[in-house]
Amino acid sequence: MAANSDELLHDFLPMLRVHKNGRIERLAGTDFVPPSLDPATAVNSKDVEISPEINLSARIYLPGNADRSKKLPLLVYFHGGGFIIESAFSPLYQKHLNHVVAEANVVAVSVNYRLAPEFPLPIAFEDSWRALKWATAGNDEWINEFADRNRLYLGGDSAGGTIAHNIAMRVGSENPVGFNLRGVFLNCPFFWGVDPIGCETEEQFKFWKEFSDRLLPFACPIVSNHDEPWINPGKDLNVSSLGCKKVLIYVGGKDFLKERGWYYKEVLSKSGWNGEVECVEIAGEEHVFSVFFPDGETGMAMIKKVASFINE
Questions:
Q1: Mapping DSSP to helix (H, G, I), strand (E, B) and coil, where does residue 177 land?
Q2: C-alpha dihedral over 157, 158, 160, 166, to 10 degrees?
Q3: pLDDT tens-digit profile of 241-275?
Q4: Helix, strand, coil shares of the chain as percentages rounded to 5?
Q5: CA-to-CA distance for 52 and 218, rounded, in angstroms?
Q6: CA nearest to 30, candidates 123, 113, 92
Q7: The whole model's pTM is what?
Q8: Which residues are in the Alpha/beta hydrolase fold-3 domain (predicted)?
Q9: Which residues are marked as active site?
Q10: Is 44 within 8 Å of 62 (Cβ atoms)?
Q11: CA-CA distance, 236 to 155, in Å (whole number)?
């Protein structure tokens, strides 16, 4: 076979393909929209460089009614996409974050961490940690003028939920000066494990189970198995040190990952962690439904719940 063969080496349809000649073909999540003032929500956004030397950046969102005399909670958000697609600058996440920021009345930092396989895990975790420290260090005018860094929240969907959990674990273990992480919300988080649980054994989810089994070692070549603590919190002996006092989990009734969300709630509840955790299942909904349809009935209901979670 010629060295420049375009034969497939890895096929992660519908997300990504890798060819034997090294070409990486992303099949989704590559569209870019510039920051803007959104007419539907009155939310404004801008892009910032966090570490130009490694191409780490973010998009910051400011609600239309922001007032310098009334500081708002600070939300640091991590997008989904299986660690291999999507960005903080895609139309999908621009629309989603506009709705979240408008409803919750927060200043949000959507982190554009680097993607596998070019930058395999744990690089996404390290990027996200660096971005969180940047956001809480007073490096941006909007954050300084409008955000209360003492009311810090993390959020993420799918793989971004995995990142949010791991960042919260790092806050708990390192207890960095100046951090007051109030809570974390996980939207259909991507947790996994060696042994299937619940509906993961059903035939209708066979494709996605096999997909996830292949994806993890692809995104993280140094992974030993699917029970490593970063992807299976149930195997983490230190999970009780999660660095916040409340967690909100959302799962879709038709999502193959829903069992992992419920399992995460059970693990936290039994771990000795000194906090409150709630898991909400929305019947009939697919994976990260509120990201795809933030202005739909169930999407908006979820976003309103997240807003209450942040502001209560």
A1: coil
A2: 120
A3: 999 999 999 999 999 999 999 999 999 999 999 99
A4: 35, 25, 40
A5: 26
A6: 92
A7: 0.97
A8: 75-289
A9: 158, 255, 287
A10: yes
A11: 20
